[in-house]
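Researcher: Next entry in the queue.
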Amino acid sequence: MRQAIITRQPSPAPIGMPVARRPKVHIPQPAIKLPPRGSGPVHISRLLNPILEICSHPDRDRLLAEFFKED
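Model: Structure for this entry, 71 residues:
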């Protein structure tokens, strides 16, 4: 008889260390202030600053979609 018989009992499931919860990070909403329509000529930097602020924000995809959505 060449077949080996396994007599060892299966080991119980390993008990791991509990996973530590990471603290929830609060991401502040950027303050977007645009000049009102019809207020006259506006320097381009006043229009681009909110977009530049959104581009550096961690949640930029959602904020850009909200910024450019049509009402």
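Model: Residues 9 and 15 are 18 Å apart (CA to CA).
Researcher: Noted, moving on.
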